[in-house]
């Protein structure tokens, strides 16, 4: 038996229960991982509140962790007992002391990467990678808008885009987060609680707009984000922390021939080779100093409910990890 967070019904953070679970032994093609550090992502909230449908009830939430392989099933050659590995994505279940996973879902974590850093960077770092390269390729001279610029993914987007030579505009909710966003490479920071971000983007860009908007906020910012785009601009909606955006009529895109996408990590890094390549690049960016990981909040795994309360109330910035 191991301890894990279990969810028996959708609801508030209080539905996250600390329970004993039996996980068994790894079958063919599987590994058993003893977690050292577990990443918290807003997608965990989406599953808990029913925005995304959980595979079944009860379930253990979580999509990201770093730990040590303690057992392997038949046929596994990509990992061995004692390896430090990480994973991000499906299956759910990282909010646990241990988890059994398909071996093809785990990637090696370099010795130079602390487990807390690894659990903070894999999902968010690979998300930043496909957002900046695959959804829209950010290049020198581009001007981009990043909402929630002090958040886990937002912080990495700002740092990476700045390193690519883009001009970065970021929105945040307060002065403390504004200071962090500037440290992370934002050239222009907008405190959206004090000023109209659409008007400020228009002012900063001399009325031209931005090439791309990275919007993880959703309902509160979606329409304004469209207004910030230049002709043939790209609207990338990859989250909805403020709620589902209102339906978008195609005519609202036709006004400036805009592009709109709602991407997910699982559709961009599908195979084990793709996961390996993406994770290596993310870890390399950390090692080279391009990406600075901010593990600003750490909680015991048993207090996952508190972590969810804080992330939903926007009391957090940077990354959040749970420690078993």
TrEMBL record:
InterPro entries xref list: ADH-like_C, ADH-like_N, ER, GroES-like_sf, NAD(P)-bd_dom_sf, QOR-like
SUPFAM superfamilies associated with the record: GroES-like, NAD(P)-binding Rossmann-fold domains
CDD domains xref list: QOR2
Domain Enoyl reductase (ER), chain residue ranges per copy: 11-322
Keywords: NADP, Oxidoreductase
Pfam families, per the entry: ADH_N, ADH_zinc_N
PANTHER family (UniProt xref): QUINONE OXIDOREDUCTASE PIG3-RELATED (PTHR48106), QUINONE OXIDOREDUCTASE-RELATED (PTHR48106:SF13)
Name of the protein: Enoyl reductase (ER) domain-containing protein
Organism field: Stylosanthes scabra
